Amino acid sequence: MVIELIASLGYWNWWILGIVLLCVELVAPGTFMLWFGAAALVVGLLSLLIDWSWQAQFVTFGVLSIASVGLSRFFLRRKPSEGEAPFLNRRAEAIVGRGFVLTEPIVNGRGRLSIDDTVWRIEGPDLPTGTPVTVSAARGSRLVVRQSDAP
């Protein structure tokens, strides 16, 4: 009885499965269910064009799923995405190389510098207020500065 039910399934069942898997991908992103959904849609298209057994359909679905997941892992690992904002969560690293003018002196190698909307702790040689400095490194949430010729 179960075999007869499986054997009677048509191409539209594969399309429904593919759409459901693509919807699952939307809810739980990670580009994993996407490939199973695509494989189900391809098997549905092939079932529309070819009259073949349910065993061949399941084998084709399995092969396409494994192949598409494997290929996606290969290509995604090979070409990592840098994104539009590579320093989004690494603000201190984004400031390295920029020049500023000290608004407070550096005393005993420590000071503070207002950059954009944040006050940063800085390290560097003792320098008076008004000295142009360049951020040379970031150590955690501290910036290392050195004296420069121009801001």
Task: Tell me what the structure shows.
The chain is an alpha+beta fold and 151 residues long. It has 2 domains: 2-78, no CATH class; 91-147, Nucleic acid-binding proteins (OB fold (Dihydrolipoamide Acetyltransferase, E2P)), CATH 2.40.50. It is 46% helix and 19% strand. It has 5 helices and 5 strands; from the N terminus they run H-H-H-H-H-E-E-E-E-E. The protein has helices spanning 2-7, 11-27, 33-49, 54-78, 91-95; strands at residues 99-101, 110-115, 118-123, 132-139, 142-147. Strands 1-4-5-3-2 form a 5-stranded mixed beta sheet. Helix 2 packs antiparallel against helix 3 (33-49). The radius of gyration is 29 Å and the shape is rod-shaped. The mean pLDDT is 86. Keywords: Membrane, Transmembrane, Transmembrane helix. Residues 92-146 form the NfeD-like C-terminal domain. It is found in: Membrane.
